[in-house]
């Protein structure tokens, strides 16, 4: 059985090695990387190739959509039999069919099928100003007229929309033998049928790109070869006229069934699902009275929500009258009618959340670590912190210097992290400074902790991510890199600004086995999979609690089998501590919104309050209660998710997968117990070794028969089998016996039962 799977190209290696080969036994996985790969498959299938086992064909959706540029094949020339338009000698030009040479006919009123047909004028197909008769004349004289009647070097752009004709529909009355053939009454004329569009040709300068085969178009021609088409991240194909949407539509046609996987089926608007439905299940839409002409607004008026934006521009015109200009614009608002879900989605969707699967996650542990500053650092820090605090308070209160406080957090947070750098803060006329302590060659307390912790994690065979907040010109990433490298730790800074390339960078770092990655937590806030590095260390935090929460989950995902650890090293009696308490309070509020925490419980996590800003630094000291409050909060967040210690995780997971597989069997109407029993007792005869020798002998027999006759065609055949004969002569009779396929009794290992294929991305 053959299965086609499309996914973002970047995830294909992961699909192959981590999902398919790991979970489905005895399969073949091929990745289509180019149009030629696709064509090779098409050729094989047309020659009668059928997969022997379960065969997955993977294709990147971004690759599948690429094709040659489309070029209009019509010829721009003078119309025959049309007299001169005027005395100046200008002629009537029109687009002509490249096949029959007749003018291409289009409706006079575009879009009206019943209107009169006229020869296609310039702007039916061309989207640039018309070439003048003069330009054409010059080109003709210089011999620079292209085969399509346009001057060489012209920059042409073609119109592209679905209403433009695709074939020449010129009809010819039947003549000669054709006129007397049978059935001509029903089909009296011959239609030209020439294609009007073709791939652009690079060598003629029609395209800057070399021509390329559109993979999805090739796959479409495999009609029904694939039993199933799996489209990962299906929401990416939702657009009506994107290349991806088109590639998706073609690949749907290549398979008998389609399975779409997505984590975000809609973006909240009803139109985001329209094209996916139209391309996969047009029948249900047609039955509901929706067809290909149904526009977005009509769709949204039935299944979504529309809003009218009325713009009024008031303007005085004259003294007495006052006129308002009104413009009304209709656009779609977020909202999906329950009818849409009920009618088109519910009966063919499976909604899955982690607890539904009954699958556990490996243990996640959060460790707040409270450290004291070194003696000199602590003194200077306290002095700087308190002075600056007073100054900011004064500046923002009395004189109202705007943004006075905005400098406070970065300055204090940075001085606690980099005491080797002098800190200067200017407020109005005054400057507040903290001295540089040492030249950076000595590590301060938190840096020593960081190096020790990283080394200890590495010694356990674990890998780490270190998050910073103040990167860029603050150089926090570079400092961490430097102190780790000094201790002989291999590490890499992730600072790829391009979100799409970032995943690629991470994959490269994983391939190069970097044990430590350093980056700004903002960079990995969403979507990235960093499972390779199961320990996360917050060298710095952020006031944005959602950033902290999301970045802390980058390693803890389905598929992770190493225990996940998150460390929050915090300096006591510093702004870091206040920031930590702020995050704890905000996290509590977020959990309350999510319904994981009661309002009554909230107070115990909100140690930070407005008043604490004014409080003395001495109170910013974490006792055991703060650490306890933090871990309690973490537990509340994870409530409902089953966590298993790393040591037992693999066993428990495989047992759960088994249970899930049994549930699946039940849903398929199979009794799992009976099924297992049958599979364990029934030995399966498996042939080892190809039956090539036997085939050769058969070929030999056929050859002898063929040689008996000597017609022109068989002579060619016999030439072909000469080589075969030579090959056979190398084998002795004894060898032939040895090479005979052996039938071996082999007990099948019942691996199929606990298999699951799912995308949790
Ligand atoms: Zn034609």
Automatic annotation (TrEMBL):
List the protein's name. Answer: Helicase-like protein
Assigned keywords, A-Z: ATP-binding, Helicase, Hydrolase, Nucleotide-binding
SUPFAM superfamilies, sorted:
P-loop containing nucleoside triphosphate hydrolases
Does the keyword Ribosomal protein feature in the UniProt annotation? no
User: In Gene Ontology terms, what is one molecular function of this protein?
Assistant: helicase activity
Which Pfam families would you find in this protein's record? Helicase_C (PF00271)
Q: Which residues form the Helicase C-terminal domain?
A: 450-559
């Amino acid at each position: 059985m053959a299965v086609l799977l499309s996914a973002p190209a970047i995830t294909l290696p992961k699909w192959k090695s981590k999902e398919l080969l790991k979970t489905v036994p005895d399969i073949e996985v091929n990745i289509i990387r180019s149009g030629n790969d696709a064509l090779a498959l098409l050729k094989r299938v047309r020659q009668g190739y059928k997969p022997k086992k379960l065969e997955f064909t993977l294709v990147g959706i971004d690759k599948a959509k690429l094709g040659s540029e489309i070029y209009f094949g019509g010829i721009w020339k003078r119309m025959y039999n049309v007299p001169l338009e005027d005395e100046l000698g200008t002629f009537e030009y029109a687009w002509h069919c490249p096949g029959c040479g007749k003018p291409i006919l289009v409706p006079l009123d575009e879009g009206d099928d019943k209107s009169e047909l006229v020869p296609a004028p310039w702007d039916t197909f061309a989207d640039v100003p018309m070439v003048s008769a003069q330009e054409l004349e010059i080109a003709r004289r210089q011999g620079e007229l292209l085969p399509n009647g346009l001057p060489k070097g012209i920059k042409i752009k073609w119109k592209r929309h679905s209403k433009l004709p695709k074939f020449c529909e010129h009809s010819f009355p039947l003549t000669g033998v054709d006129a007397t053939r049978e059935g001509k009454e029903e089909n009296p004329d011959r239609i030209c049928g020439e294609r009007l569009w073709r791939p652009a040709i690079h060598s003629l300068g029609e395209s800057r790109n070399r021509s390329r085969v559109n993979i999805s178009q090739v796959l479409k021609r495999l009609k029904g070869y694939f039993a199933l088409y799996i489209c990962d991240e299906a929401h990416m194909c939702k657009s009506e006229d994107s290349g991806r949407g088109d590639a998706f539509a073609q690949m749907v046609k290549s398979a008998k069934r389609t399975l779409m996987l997505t984590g975000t089926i809609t973006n909240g608007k009803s139109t985001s699902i329209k094209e996916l439905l139209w391309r996969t299940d047009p029948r249900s839409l047609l039955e509901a009275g929706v067809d290909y002409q149904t526009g977005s607004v009509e769709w949204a008026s039935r299944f979504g929500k529309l809003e009218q934006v009325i713009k009024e521009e008031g303007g005085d015109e004259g003294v007495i009258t006052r006129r308002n200009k009104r413009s009304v614009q209709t656009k779609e608002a977020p909202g999906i009618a329950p009818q849409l879900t009920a009618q088109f989605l519910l009966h063919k969707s499976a909604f899955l959340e982690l607890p539904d699967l009954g699958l556990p996650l490996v243990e996640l542990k959060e460790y707040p670590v409270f450290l004291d500053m070194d003696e000199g650092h602590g003194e200077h820090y306290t002095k700087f912190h308190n002075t600056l605090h007073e100054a900011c308070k004064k500046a923002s209160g009395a004189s109202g210097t705007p943004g006075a406080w905005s400098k406070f957090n970065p300055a204090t947070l940075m001085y606690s992290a980099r005491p080797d750098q002098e800190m200067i803060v200017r407020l109005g006329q005054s400057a507040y400074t903290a001295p540089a302590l040492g030249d950076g060659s000595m590590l301060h307390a938190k840096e020593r902790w960081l190096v020790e912790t990283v080394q200890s994690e590495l010694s356990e065979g674990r890998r780490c991510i270190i998050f910073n907040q103040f990167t860029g010109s603050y150089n926090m990433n570079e400092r961490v890199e430097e102190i780790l490298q000094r201790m002989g730790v291999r590490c890499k800074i992730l600072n790829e600004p391009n979100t799409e390339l970032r995943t690629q960078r991470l994959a490269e770092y994983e391939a190069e086995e970097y044990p430590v990655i350093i980056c700004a937590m903002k960079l990995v806030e969403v979507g990235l999979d960093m499972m390779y590095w199961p320990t996360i260390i917050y060298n710095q935090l952020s006031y944005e609690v959602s950033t902290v929460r999301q970045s802390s989950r980058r390693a803890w995902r389905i598929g992770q089998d190493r225990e996940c650890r998150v460390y929050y090293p915090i300096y006591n009696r510093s702004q870091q501590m206040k920031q930590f308490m702020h995050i704890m309070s905000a996290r509590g509020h977020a959990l309350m919104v999510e319904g994981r925490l009661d309002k009554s419980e909230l107070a115990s996590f909100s140690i930070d309050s407005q008043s604490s800003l004014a409080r003395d630094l001495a109170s910013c000291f974490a006792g055991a209660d703060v650490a306890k409050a933090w871990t309690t909060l973490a537990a509340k967040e994870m409530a409902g998710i089953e966590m298993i210690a790393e040591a037992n995780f693999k066993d428990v997971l495989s047992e759960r997968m088994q249970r899930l597989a049994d549930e699946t069997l039940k849903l398929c109407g199979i009794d799992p117990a009976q099924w297992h029993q049958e599979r364990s007792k029934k030995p399966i005869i498996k042939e080892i070794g190809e039956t090539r020798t036997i085939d050769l002998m058969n070929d030999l027999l056929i050859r002898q028969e063929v040689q008996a006759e000597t017609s022109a065609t068989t002579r060619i055949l016999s030439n072909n089998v000469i080589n075969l004969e030579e090959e056979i002569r190398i084998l002795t009779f004894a060898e032939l016996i040895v090479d005979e396929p052996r039938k071996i009794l082999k007990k099948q290992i019942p691996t199929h039962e606990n298999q699951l294929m799912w995308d949790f991305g």
